[in-house]
Amino acid sequence: MITHNRITMARMHFGFNFLLLIAATSINGNQQKTAPPADTLTLTPEEEMAHFVNQSRMVSCSYGNPDVKLRWRNPKNVLISETKGRVHIEEKGSTLSLIFEAIARSDQGNWTCEADAEATGASVAFLPLRKSFKMIVYEPISFRDTSTVQTAVEDKDATIRCEVKGHPEPSVSWYFNGQPLFFTNNGRYTKLADGMSIKKVVQSDSGEYTCKAFQISATGSSFEEKTIRLNIKHKPYLPQWKTSVSDAYGYVGGMVNLTCEATAEPPANFSWWANNKKLTSKSHIIHSGRHVSMLQIMIKSSSLFGKYKCEAKNELGSVSQEIHLKEGSKPDPPSLFQLRGVNSDTLDIDVGATKSHDTPPDPTTVIGYRFELMALDEYLKSRSWDLASQRDFDVADGATYLLVQLIPDTKYIVRVAARNAAGLSDWTEVKEFSTHPLQPHGTSGSSGPLAAAQPTDLCFKFLWLLAVALPTALSITHHRLADMAKARF
């Protein structure tokens, strides 16, 4: 019995020791598997990094055993063999470097360095022979095929192109003349992948559209914007204040300017007609601008009175205006012409202006005045009024007219003519007026309605008030208060 128990205890002791041995062996085995080997693949730099398109990068792969051959694979598992170009490899000793001269969006993914198993040999086949890094590629915001000036046609749907590219994909918002645009299911504005559209554009849709792009990534955020000028192409239109038929007046021996205006996009071409014949610049004086044309007529005889037609035309349509040139009368020059006031840079002149209140006004009624003036010294050099300054004024009851921005201490010659619907009168006689010289401390001699209190006078009055008037007033007030107190008690 005793022998049986000893045998049993011995077996139990042996089994326990066997289990300990197995456990120790297992532990040692695990330690051997997790411990880093002396030779392994190393990537430098090893961390995951984000790059923008067109940036450069180099990643080196090395192995402790110089006899081991290394190679790189791209995200599509294709071996990199090129030693030159945008993406290539360079070998230096036991290091094989992967070079990106200009990173592209297609480079995103896992790039793997590996040891050539055939060249390595079975003795180290148990070692980790592959190591990868992840290339993250961001593409900054860019606007492709986006012109800063775009056009649309009136009454037709329009598309404003603003193709925004980037990775991560940017979010886009739109503004019109600085105000945000809102896109609804049934609204006039629709957001597109490469811009936006507007239903049936009108002239008021022309203006500045701003395409704003926002991009948010793990490394930060960015913002870019593009402003686009939208021009609406439309047929010519007369100004709202003009009618298709109007009257103009002139007199024999005088000159008249017939003006035709029409807004259009593209700008209209103007043509003039009289008696069903087209007028040309060879026989007539015609001045044309972007949206206006002027026919200048020297009325040598009464045969030039009659109907004139102006036509404005572009690729989208045309509009015409008829002007009846009627015979009027030449106004009389102003009967009054006198100086009312003067200072260093202004002449105040009275021409006896009286405004007519007839409705509609009579064609003979004076509606304004034209002044011509120039420095006497300048006139004496040329004896001509060609370089004179012209100032035009409308009639106002009892008004005098200020000729401003003149040179101090200068003698001017001045003349004036009245104006009615038919044109200008003869000039008045020429008169000489002189501006005052500039005075020290901002003072200037003045007369008439231009006269004003001078700063020196104001300063003296203020000092007198402090020194004399104010103490006197305080003294009087003090005595009155004293008298009132005595009377009360």
Automatic annotation (TrEMBL):
One of its GO terms (biological process) is synapse organization. This is Neural cell adhesion molecule 1. GO terms for cellular component: axon; neuronal cell body; plasma membrane. Gene3D superfamilies: Immunoglobulins. SMART domains: FN3, IG, IGc2. GO terms for molecular function: axon guidance receptor activity. PANTHER family: CONTACTIN 5, NEURAL CELL ADHESION MOLECULE 1-LIKE. It comes from the Eukaryota. Keywords: Immunoglobulin domain, Repeat, Signal. Residues 1-29 form the signal peptide. It holds the Pfam family I-set. The keyword Magnesium does not apply. InterPro entries: Cell_Adh-Cytoskel_Orgn, FN3_dom, FN3_sf, Ig-like_dom, Ig-like_dom_sf, Ig-like_fold, Ig_I-set, Ig_sub.
